[in-house]
Amino acid sequence: MEVGKQNVSQLETRSGRTAREAMKFIIPSLLGVLLFLLPVTYEGNMTIGVGIFASYFQGVLEGVLPLFMTVVFGVSALVAIYTKMFKPQWIVNQSFLKGLFDVGYFWIAVRVLGSIFAVMTVNGSGPEWIISDFTGGTVLYSLVPVLATWFLFAGLLMPLLLDFGLMDFFGTLLQKIMKPLFQLPGRSSIDALASWMGSGTVGVLITTKQFEEGYYTKREAAVIATNFSVASIAFSLVIVSFIGLESMFVQLYGTVVIAGIAAAVICPRIPPLSRKKDTYYEPVGMQISETVPENVSRFQWGFEKAVEKASEVKSVGEVTKKGLQNVLDIWFGLIPLVMALGTIALVVAEYTPVFDILAYPIVPLLELLQIPQAADAAPAMIVGFADMFLPAVVGSGIESELTRFVIAAMSLTQLIYMSEIGILLIKSKIPISFLDLFIIFIQRTIITLPIVALLAHFFFM
User: Fold this and answer.
1) pLDDT of residue 272
2) In the chain, what are the domain boundaries?
3) pTM of the predicted model as reported, rounded to 2 decimal places
4) Among 21, 137, 300, 372, which is disulfide-ready with 133 (CB 3.0 to 4.6 Å)?
5) 112 and 388 in contact (C-beta within 8 Å)?
């Protein structure tokens, strides 16, 4: 009798502990879904919870953010120089601070350049080609505030997606779809959803963190970052509105999805992505297993792995610290590079004939696809490599609605643009070079253009 009572007591204790562990997975993960993956309407625009926080914060500090981030750029550059010259113990003995400020000479130079561009733009003094509304002004007043606010909340709240088992749960459930179709682990579906509902840059941030923690191989991380960091629905609405095709949004976004899936199937199977090594980030090694044991349902095993992952989180303080480190890494390590390299990319696009020259071979292809005003549209097919919004700027003056439709759809399917995504990837530990990014951009253009053109002709019959 005593033994029976003991067994019941042990069972109750075990059940109680399991319930607590399950709640530790379910509640934070549900919050993560609500904040990152659930589309909501805010001030007439479709966004996500994190986007609402970012938009509100950006609105409140609209006049202050460019100046504040200019100060951040200056501190980032000065502390990096100080660290390189004097090797202070309080920095070099702290792994996070060392990684943030003990950087190579090239990255120090880029931080300094970003600071100089920002100071010039804020003061309105310097060469027009640097501080104009189409170059430095665009980056500092339009792009930087968006990145600063989005990454503030995305960085702080991202552990809800990554650390409490949600990736493990969905990874197990969706492995049978993602693996054969895209040669990727199931958890990559969360990256794609976070991009689709919120921001492509958030998707890249999730991918880089997962790679650095041993959940993606080098090839998988490169594939996900260049093929699944899709433009958000909110940004797509902005593009469609700017180019004057609001009534065609459903058709346009459907076209983007179809063309994007085709590119995501083909690009990983050809160089340079197919030649990336299927090895994990060396300092951490492989930290993932999506193999489901026999006689266990996929849902049950995914839930079990998720609860196990959530149980590794020891305290709220640990999660908060990780989130703050994410934000500081982006503000001090990444956004100064966006200011420097993004400005340079826009200067090249606006003040040199480089993209016009690169666009010449596109003209016969557009004519073959029977796209009206092919010569005017061709630069828009290439200029997106500098910034995703530039094709809409180039195409907004074109009379043909069909041509504007093609330009808008292509700007959303090409995905690789240096003012933001490209810099994120080059700065990350994912082994992908500038040349890789340019080749993938061209590949995605060649793959998706015929699909977009075919559907455009169908919609404008």
Assistant:
1) 95
2) 19-348, 349-460
3) 0.77
4) 137
5) no
